[in-house]
Each structure stands twice: as C-alpha cells, then as structure tokens.
Amino acid sequence: MIHTRGLTRTFRARGATVEAVRGLDLDIEAGSVVALLGPNGAGKTTSLRMLTTLLRPTSGTAVVAGHDVLADPSGVRHRIGYLGQGNSAGSNFRVGDELVVQGRAYGLSRVESRARAQRLLGALELEGLAKRTVATLSGGQRRRLDIAMALVHEPQLLFLDEPTTGLDPHSRANIWEHVLRLREELGTTVVFTTHYLEEADLWAGRVMVVDHGRVIADGSAERLKADLAGDRITLGTAGCADAERAVALARALPAVHEVSAEGTQVRVRTPRGDTQLPVLLRHLEAAGVRALTARLSRPTLDDVFLHLTGRTLWESADADVPTVTHDGA
Ligand SMILES: Nc1ncnc2c1ncn2[C@@H]1O[C@H](COP(=O)(O)OP(=O)(O)OP(=O)(O)O)[C@@H](O)[C@H]1O
C-alpha cells in the first residue's frame, strides 16, 4: 500500500538546512494499522505530508496506493484520506452540509454524497448533530467530523496526524473505537502519529519509532518491548551484602541482562520476567539470600525509546535536530 525508498525532506530555516526526514524506506501492507511514534520534531508530520502529496520530497521515491506521489499526485489523493493536525472543517457550516460538500469535491454525485454523509454520520454517532454548525461541536465531536470528512470518498488508506491530541481519555477511546470499526468494515489501511504511547501500543499492529528523521525501530509493540527493553525485576534484599550476592546469582542466569544493585535494591532486565522471576527467587533461596520484596514491571514503548536513544520520548528532539549550517551561521 505504501512503498518509499530513500525519501528525504530538508527545510531552509534561518541560514541552516534542517534535515526533517532522512532516507525513509517504508513498505506498508494493505489492511495494516501502523503508528509512527517519536518525540517532537522527529519528522512524523513531514513524512505524512510527503506521503499525502502536500509536500514535495527533496529526494527519494514514494508510491502510495499504487500511485507515485510526484508523477500522479491526484491519483494518490483520490485514494487516501488525511486528517491533519488541527481541524479541517469550516466553523460556520452545518455538520451535514460539510460532509456533502466534501463528497461533491471528490466528484461524487449529489445523491451518492448525501448517502455517504448519512452513513458516516450514523457510524460516527453524529446524526443528531447534522443540523448544528461545526463551531458548536465539542472537541471530540469535531474530531469525529474530521474523520468522517477524511472517509467520505471511502479511501483505501487513511492518514491520521495526532487524531486525539487534546481530547480527554473518554473521547480518545471513543475516536479509536470508531476508527477501528470503520477500518474493519471498509478494510482501510491506517497510518497514524501520536504522542500517546498507549495508543500506539493498543491499536497499532506495527509501530515505527522515528527519531531525527529516521526509523530507528520497527515491529509490533510486543516485539519491540521484548527485544529492546525487556521486563524489569526489582528485588529488595535484607542488606547490601545480600544485594551483591543476588547480583552474582542473577548474572549467572541465562536470558538476563543489565543486572545492577543500588543499596539493598537489585534491578534485572530480562525479556521474560514472568518466567525468570520464579527461577531467580529459587536460586536466591537455595543460596540463602533473602529477598524481602520482588516486583515485576512490564516495559513501555518509552522504555524502548530510552533504550535506543538514551532519552525519553518527552525530551524534545528539536534541540539537537540535524542541521547543516550555511552562510557561516
Ligand atoms: N516548514 C518548515 N520550515 C522549517 N523547518 C521545518 C518546517 N516544517 C518542519 N520543520 C522542521 O522539521 C523537523 C521535523 O518536523 P515535523 O513537524 O515533521 O516533526 P514531528 O515529528 O511531526 O513533530 P510533532 O510531534 O511536534 O508534530 C523539525 O525540526 C521542524 O522544526
């Protein structure tokens, strides 16, 4: 559904060249749900804007829904839906009219456009609001309207740039419920960006972690967490001597890495904490080392990012975004 090779985009800003996207090689299969996850300034929006033909790549190729973004941008546009950051809908129009006009803009007949608008209003639980102006909608309702607008021409591929930013947890869950149900019904491929780690974790079959314009990890959330972060076991021992002995015993176990002690606390990383914890406790007991507490924590996608970059996702990448300085600046 999406194939890119060496896709790059640079910007000139204040005498310097910002390398927003640096050599993106993507192959995304039809029907998948893919999350692009990364800190501010990682290049997610720039990537989506190139794939949706809103921004010309500096170099590289991209074929989206079977059409080249440079050679046939309108072929791409007819097959995709795009929900950008912020709202697309005009505020003084009525909700139902917005959808019908959008359908007409995509070349649908008046009858077909009305029928699609009706279906989407129902599917996104907006039918009671059809006669209201967009300005009177809540944030969550407005975002649902944006999604309806992006779906009115029944695209094969839906791009969502931070679809739930600024919404409360209930509205966020509600948006995802709708998007995934529509995706089931229509078989739409979904590519989205988000700052909410749990959304990537819960809803995406594939997570691409982006940093400084490059994909630095790619796989299912489970796989990335198991391979790159692992579970964390934290043991509380009776004293520092016990902690040191526990460290030695933990290091001797297979499939255990990053063993460290801080005072009486011992920390262990392992891909399978649920099976390793009982084994470790048995070894400690056999060696006469007392563990007073034992805690198993599952990793998050933030742990994956931390493992890969030494930073958390919340630390902005803007500060050290790759730039090439010109003009002696
Ligand atoms: N029009 C522009 N002119 C100059 N620099 C730009 C422009 N658009 C984006 N950039 C820079 O390119 C880099 C990537 O920006 P982009 O918006 O793609 O990041 P992002 O991952 O989507 O961030 P966010 O999560 O904050 O939306 C940033 O350093 C940004 O400042």
3D structure, described in words:
Keywords: ATP-binding, Nucleotide-binding, Transport. GO terms for molecular function: ATP binding. This is ATP-binding cassette domain-containing protein. This protein is an alpha/beta fold and 329 residues long. The chain folds into 2 domains: 2-225, Rossmann fold; 231-298, Alpha-Beta Plaits. Helix content is 37%, strand content 29%. The chain is built from 11 helices and 15 strands. The protein has helices spanning 44-51, 73-79, 95-105, 110-123, 139-151, 169-186, 197-203, 221-229, 240-251, 273-286, 301-309; strands spanning 2-13, 16-28, 33-37, 59-64, 67-68, 80-83, 157-161, 189-194, 206-211, 214-219, 231-237, 257-262, 265-270, 291-297, 323-325. The strands form 3 sheets. It has a 6-stranded mixed sheet with strand order 6-7-8-3-9-10, with helices on both faces. A 5-stranded antiparallel sheet has the order 5-4-1-2-15. Residues 317-329 have low confidence and may be disordered. The structure holds adenosine-5'-triphosphate (ATP). Adenosine-5'-triphosphate is lined by residues 11, 13, 18, 20, 38, 40-46, 318, 321.
